[in-house]
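Tip: read the tokens left to right.
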């Protein structure tokens, strides 16, 4: 929620000129692209972050196949069922967005 409070006045900023509208829409597109990129780095099997994790853990290929096969259901459960893991993912994404947008908008 910390990140979103900083951009709460986006609608007011977009109500001005065409350039302001374009900048606001561009900011929304960059926000979602960054959010999806950070989410894709999570080490859950259907996402790309799991490939990095598998590389460093050097799991047997049979385990990797099983995790790949059932990883979607694990990811689906993590997203839909509130848990400490869901809270940790939210905090990671909030930190990621705050860090990178802080650099970009500084």
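Filled-in amino acids:
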């Amino acid at each position: 929620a910390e990140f979103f409070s900083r951009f709460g006045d986006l609608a007011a900023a977009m109500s001005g000129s065409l350039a302001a509208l374009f900048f606001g829409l561009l900011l929304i597109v960059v926000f979602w692209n960054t959010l999806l990129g950070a989410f894709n780095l999570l080490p859950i099997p259907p996402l790309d972050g799991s490939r990095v994790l598998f590389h460093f853990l050097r799991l047997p290929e049979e385990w990797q196949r099983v995790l790949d096969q059932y990883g979607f259901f694990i990811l689906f459960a993590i997203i839909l069922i509130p848990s400490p893991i869901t809270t940790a993912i939210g905090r990671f994404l909030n930190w990621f967005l705050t860090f990178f947008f802080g650099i970009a908008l500084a």
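The helical segments are 2-6, 10-14, 18-40, 49-57, 61-80, 84-104. The CA atoms of residues 3 and 31 lie 11 Å apart.
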